[in-house]
Amino acid sequence: MYSKRCMNGLCKTCPEEQTCKGTIKTSKYKNKKTVVDGIEFDSKKEANRYQELLLLQKNGIITDLKRQVPYTLVPAFNLGRKRYRPMSYIADFVYKENGKEVVEDTKGYRTEVYKIKKKLMAYIYQIEIREV
Q1: Is the pTM of this model over 0.85?
Q2: Are residues 19 and 49 in the same domain?
């Protein structure tokens, strides 16, 4: 997917006019990567939520804030000669609130893959993902 600025190397506005092969891409869901405190987030919404959670942690409302926590949903396995890679879910944030672990995902759009992984998290880990 090319940006509107890039005409597959034929445009004059492309920053890499001489070497451009049309590789400037736009985000599928129109989110913009954002950097906060030297940490790159997938969206402004996720970065803003991180700042909110830091304030909550500073005020003692939540504890043990972690980012990008992986959960294995299906381990790697072999079937006959075929090797299947593991399937995992990576939570945006995990923290403790009133002594209970909270798994949180900052969602702009709920994809079908996300819906399946959410169900698997509930089934395997007995964790309901909090969507913000």
Answers
A1: no
A2: no
